[in-house]
Amino acid sequence: MSAAPWLVAALLFAAGVFGIVTSRNFIHLVGCLSVCQSSTYVLLLGVGYRWGAVAPVFYDHPPGTPAVDPVVQALVLTDIVVGATVTALLLAMAVRVHDKTGTLDPQALAPFPDRRR
Amino acid sequence: MSPRTRVALMALVGACLAPAVWSIAAALPPFGAPTGAYGPTVNALGPPLRHVSNMVSAVNFDFRGVDTLGEEFMLLGAVTGAVLLLRGARGEDLADAAGRVAGRRVEPRSSAVVLVCHLLGPAILVLGLYMALHATVTPGGGFQGGVVIASGFLLVYLGEGYRPWRALVRSRALAVAEGGGALVFALAGFWPMLCGQPYFANVLPLGVFRDMLSGGLMLVENAGVALAVTGGFAILFLEFLEETRAPRPRDEPGSGGGA
Amino acid sequence: MRVLVALMLALTLAAGLGVVLSRDPRRQVLAMAANGLVLALLFFALQAPDVALSELTVGTAATPLLFLVALAAVRMNRPRK
Fold it and tell me: Which end of chain A is more exposed for a tag (fewer CB within 10 A), N or C?
């Protein structure tokens, strides 16, 4: 239990990378990328957690109550929202790639210098 | 590189990195133990110094405000890139008809869906506004409230259909909201410099602890972030949904927008 | 409390694996929505209500909708350019 979040984060990241490497569809690939992102959230929030501590919002309990780390929560919070917009950018790219080449398979597309158009 | 080679390479790298990951996981402090002094210091000094009770908002908008400025512009850049990719290929006019996939029947909108959207849409918009306004007292803030408001717009789309929704949300107003929000955030930092303080120093009156209007400059930054996130996400939804409209015929002269 | 956090971590791992192992993008969208929900519950268990609120909205509503709309746009067989 004392290393559980770190191992869960590592396993999630490995699973995400495996999905990206073996993906046959761009949109599936972007979903696996979001799994990689979620592994970092688990790691960061796991670092900040303390047993028996409350949330770092001192509205109901008085200031001075032991609370979890608010700095990592701030990092993860902004990252979730911004990560969603980056996912949207990647999806827009996937839609445009499908428009141009008719396929969504990352392993069937050749890089630029090869004239496959 | 063939798929097999790719997977074999990944397995090789994974096998090389696995002992390192294991030893790091063992060397990290145990889960739940106190780590570092920055967090507890913020928790201890936040309420007396800034009169706010939501420490996460205090970190986002006051103690680490410059980091949020960077995130803000990342959001702006990603939304601009997505809009450029989609609207650049599609054009600026609106399409009249919805796109159809060949061979699929079009289902009429269910009345249960319409009822739920009518009930929940305004409620979620009000909830999002509440969360965005009470950034410094209860869990919430510009980021969360902005996304909730944008998803409230989505409920309007689900309940009303495309045309009323498109008449309600104007892409120009959303673009102004998004850019304006980022501008408000950046300029809020310059205001203290005019008073001789560092960038993002909290020079406005701090207010009363546990009051909605506490935090000083944090409220201005929070409003900027809420505007920018709402505008950004609503623009993304709009652009993506516009992609599902019927493609405009290329040989019609002067086919103007419908909606 | 320890049991709750351990359970949520196990569910998170399962949900992440579910997203990766769903090969069909349309099924994967549902798996992503479930992943968002499980992550939000994990963040609530880890005493992070702000993070859980943003993950709840983004992970279950906004991102799966963007995926669904991208899939619909791809299926429409637009003219090649």
Answer: C
Nearest chain C residue to B232, by CA? C62
Question: Can you tell me the ipTM of this complex?
Answer: 0.90
Pairs across A and C, CB distance < 8 A: 132
Domain containing B142 equals 48-92+108-242
What tens digit of pLDDT does each residue of A69-88 get? Answer: 999 999 999 999 999 999 99
Chain C neighbors (3+ CB pairs < 8 Å): A, B
The CATH fold assigned to A4-101 is Helix Hairpins (1.10.287)
Classify residue B181: in a domain, yes or no.
yes
Q: What is the 3-state secondary structure (H, E, C) of chain B?
A: CCHHHHHHHHHHHHHHHHHHHHHHHHHCCCCECCCCCHHHHHHHHHHHHHCCCEHHHHHHHHHCHHHHHHHHHHHHHHHHHHHHHHHHHHCCCCCCCECCCCCCCCCCCCHHHHHHHHHHHHHHHHHHHHHHHCCCCCCCCHHHHHHHHHHHHHHHHHHHCHHHHHHHCCHHHHHHHHHHHHHHHHHHHHHHHHCCCCCCCCCCCCCCCCCCCCCCHHHHHHHHHHHHHHHHHHHHHHHHHHCCECCCCCCCCCCCCCC
| Domain assignments of chain C as residue spans, ordered by start | 2-75
Residues of A within 8 A of B43 (CB-CB) are: 56, 63, 67, 70
Chain B hits for A106, Cβ within 8 Å? none
Closest Cβ–Cβ partner in C20, C71, C74 for A32: C20
Tell me the pTM. Answer: 0.91
